[in-house]
Structures are given as C-alpha cells and as structure tokens.
Amino acid sequence: MADKKPFFTVSGIVEAPQPQVAGLLMRAQPGPVGPDNALYLNPKGKGKGGKGWVLKGGPTSFRATIPGDMGGGMKYEIDPRTSTILTEGMWWFRGIFRIEPDPRGTRVVQEGYDIATKAKFLVPFIKRGFPKEQRKMVAGLLDQIGSRLGVKAYLD
User: Fold this and answer.
1) Which of 15, 120, 133, 150 is a Cys-bridge partner for 116, taking CB atoms 3.0 to 4.6 Å apart?
2) What pLDDT digit, counting tens, does each position of 95-126 carry?
3) What whole-number distance in Å separates Cα of residue 116 and Cα of residue 10?
C-alpha cells in the first residue's frame, strides 16, 4: 500500500501571476523534452534533467521515455484545470507538483510519495538522498522560470 503522507515537500515562490507560471509549466506535447515542452522534466534547461527524454501520448497523459531506462520510462500527467503535474516511476515513486496562486505571485509545491507495493524494504535505502536532490531540482526549475519570465523566483 502506498504511503498517504509525502516523505518530502519542497516549495517556492515565483513572483509572477499563477496563470503565467502555469502556462509555462503545463506545456506538454509528444516529442523531445525541452524548454518549451515538459519544462518540469528539464529543470536546468539543459543537461541531466531531461536530456534525451521523449514524451509519447497526450494530450494530458504521457509516457516519458528515458535513454537507458529498462523500466519503461515514467508516467507524466498534466491537469491544466487544477494546474497539477503528476510523475510516477522507478516502481516506487510518485511526485505531485502543484502550481497555486499566492499573494506574492505563484507558489509551486512538490511532494514525493512512496508508492511501492513490492520490495518496500528497499525504498528507505533508495530514497535516502532523494529529498535533497529534489530540493536542488526545484531550485533549478525556479531559477529557469524566473529567468524566462524576468521575475524573482526562490525556494521557501
């Protein structure tokens, strides 16, 4: 059974209106991941974060294929109505990323959940450094969003 509480939460602020931030982050279509496609999967704008990744499917439910991944890639779903992105992969992880209005502009929140149903005993070892990695990932994403929109963006 999947955990009901997140094992990490990372949040930050983008000093721009929520529709503007959501418009940037909710863009997704079949094809290579990049600055104008599934930006959430390419948080640094280049390199490690989405290099060689390709989205298949659509219009709101995708499979992100990852070079060298033997596990079938990652589920990537966007819900433009609720400004939510869901990722699921590595047999044990679900990430939920919300884009919410905030008095300062927009709050972005990422939560990570353990959804393992088998070999659950391995997850504590695997996820040991995961919250720190995800904090860096969200910081990189905020930097890229802030730069692209010409506004301040920072972790809480």
Assistant:
1) 120
2) 999 999 999 999 999 999 999 988 888 888 88
3) 21
* Strand partners for 113: 94
Answer yes or no: are the C-beta atoms of 108 and 142 closer than 8 Å: yes
The closest of 100, 85, 123 to 18, measured between CA atoms, is 100
Amino acid at the residue 91: W
- For residue 33, count CB atoms less than 10 angstroms from its CB and return exposed for 0-12, middle for 13-18, buried for 19 or more: buried
Selection from 134, 144, 116 nearest residue 24 by Cα: 144
Distance CA(151)–CA(145), nearest Å, equals 8
**Per-residue pLDDT tens digits for 45-62:** 544 456 788 999 999 999
Q: Are 11 and 109 in contact (CB under 8 A)?
A: yes
